[in-house]
Amino acid sequence: MDRQPDVYLFGQVLGAHSFLLKDGFLKPDEYAEIQAQHFLPGGETGTAATVLDSLGVSMRMDGTWIGTEVAPMLQAFYRDKQVDLSPLHIWEDDPGVMEIVSHRN
User: By the 8 A CB rule, do 32 and 23 touch?
Assistant: First the structure.
């Protein structure tokens, strides 16, 4: 990003493992197939950056230290977007903060 960003974001940045379940949410002691799986930016700051970029807003994102598993995904996801990740510190010996989310059709 060559110019001053429109917004500075600071907060939770993480990787979200998102699973779409084939037959909806499970009930106790049930089994379900996974229809699709995605690994995307999450946390309030990661999500805000994605939404703001879709509205044409440029930003500099700072917050949670990101790890070796999360960093490549974030860098690839935001590569063609107006999001400057340079303030984020990368842990060299930790995969990073992640969450697991499931949803249904």
Answer: yes
Beta-strand relationship, 7-11 and 59-63: parallel
Please give the structure tokens belonging to residue 60. Answer: 């500099």
Structure confidence by residue, pLDDT tens digits, 20-59: 888 777 788 988 888 999 999 999 999 999 999 999 999 9
What is the number of residues in the chain?
A: 105
For residue 73, which amino acid is it?
M
**DSSP state letter for 56:** T
The radius of gyration computed from the CA coordinates of the chain, to the nearest angstrom, equals 16
Query: Looking at 25-97, which runs of residues are DSSP E strands?
Result: 34-42, 59-63, 83-84
* Cα angle: 78, vertex 48, 84; to 5 degrees: 35
Do 87 and 61 form a contact (C-beta atoms < 8 A)? yes
22 with 32: CB under 8 angstroms? yes
What residues contact residue 35 under an 8 Å CB cut-off, 6+ apart? 20, 21, 22, 105
Total Cβ atoms within 10 A of residue 17: 14
